[in-house]
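User: I'm preparing a small set of examples for a lab meeting where we compare how different chains pack in three dimensions. I only have the primary sequence for this one, and I'd like the structure in token form so I can line it up with the others. Please keep the answer compact; I'll paste it straight into my notes.
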Amino acid sequence: MMMFCFTSIRSFPKLWKNNPYLGGGPGHSYNSLFLKDYYGIRNQQKLFSLKTASPQNTKAVSLLAAKARYRRKGDEGSNKVSSEFPHLFAAGAAKKRSQMNPQSKDHALPPERNIIQLPTKPLNSEQWDKLKEDFKGKADFENWIISQMIRQSSSVDVAKSLLAWVATKNNGIVSYNLLVKYLYLCVFHKQTSEVFDVYEIMKARYKSLESGGSTLLIRGLIHSDRWREALLLLEDMKKVMTPSIKNYNDCIQGALLHQDVNIAWNLYQELLGHNLIPMMETLKAFFDFGKDIKDDQYSNKLLDILLYLRNNKLYPGESFAHSIKTWFESVPGEQWKGQFTTIQKSGQCLGCGKTIESIHLSPEEYEFLKRKIMSDVIDGGDQYKKTTPQELTRFQNFVKYCPPFDIVLDGLNVAKMFPKARESQVLLDVVSQLAKQNLRVLVLGRKHMIMPSARWRKDEMEKVQKQASCFFADNISEDDPFLLYATLHSGNHCKFITKDLLRDHKACLPDAKTQRLFFKWQQGHQLAIISRCPGSKITFQDILSYDTVVQTTGDSWHIPYDEDLLERCSYEVPTRWLCLHQKT
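Assistant: Understood. Below is the structure token output for the 584-residue chain.
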């Protein structure tokens, strides 16, 4: 165990100055769980986009747009349906669905029992002794109590009295773990002088520091006049590892704070060179610094950041979006005007009236994606774990001799969308409505679906087979590869229906560019069923016509952004946009 030995314990500030070392150098990293909340960031996928695609005008698109939302005149609550069901890929949709489905609610764990009351002011040795006697937990008291202090952001003075008490009980020794947690509190409360003292102790005792301690020291130094020492710590880290995006963020923020723009941009390029995705607050700092600066080179670098967001399918947060707006409007002589808005279903911006890029892939993009999915998901995936080569060949031959389909259904998935209804009746209602629109439908199912039972009536399944082409695989088979194969084989006009969001199959794709294209294709081709009434009345949700990605026309920018209070899953996209245009 790593220890610090202190010879003076009467006055705790002296502990930082009098500390003969009794232990070995740091051989392990302290438990860093307590850092997660302080340094937490949003997970972001690294996705790449290709060129803008032109919209498609096909049979399935036009017919579904005109007829799929079949409603009787005078139906009550028709507007309520659309408001209650956010778009399948809209930010917050997954949370909304879980709230509407009581069975999917998480059962919250009971709160941790508050074993003892944390002190709000420094304690003396006798008071700490009494507090430890009252402690009934299984954990080590000293580590438990300082972890609770971190959780509740206790004052540095209280933590300092704890370490002084520990030193009195251990012949002047304080463990490295306790010291680093104390450092965390010093950094959190921006107690710079205390950070300096801990830093001096660590420099005196170790030739190098482990990453957790270095990370805290970097964060603690950047706001001080000793901020360049944070850069030295970063260089030391590079000798043994690639620094984290948090380390780069802190050093970039420190450089900008102290007006050293060149160092900030060099660190940013270095970060990108490691294929790391920068924190949004790092990018925001560059825009905040650039306000009112008349420097074409700096401005071009900020525009490059926006293109980086586009190419990697990244979205700024609400605060960052405000910084972008402020910067554009501050550029002298440019006359930019920004507003926060939404996009209509047609793809037209409500702010400026411009049309947002189409969600549909170009022919070149489509053929590229089709080849990749065929090779990496259909042929090279793990589908043989749940099917056989013979069955896949049988299906491929089936599709080969059928005309192209307009709609491909995951039959079992669709049939179970409404648990209180009979599966065969739900499937028949969906197929019947699509068939009435003269759409060529393929139903993918399992063999047990054509075995008569209470849930799968023979007469209803016979009606399904009369109105649609059907392929029933073995009961152990995986439906999704068949669904992808049939949809892609039928052409770019073909849509598919399933509740499955196909995340596992996207993960099988080899690179970020292909994953980005897959998600774009999925958004433009996956139909969602949002309501059903007995007697074949099905309500389909419109497919988005536009691509949710940062985009520009030269005299305008449209930037989708995450709202602060709205939880968005990785497969969802924002619904709010920053619209920027130049005044003429």
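A couple of notes for your slides: DSSP finds 24 helices and twelve strands in the chain. Residues 279-358+544-583 form a domain with the Serine Threonine Protein Phosphatase 5, Tetratricopeptide repeat fold (CATH 1.25.40.10).

User: Perfect, thanks.
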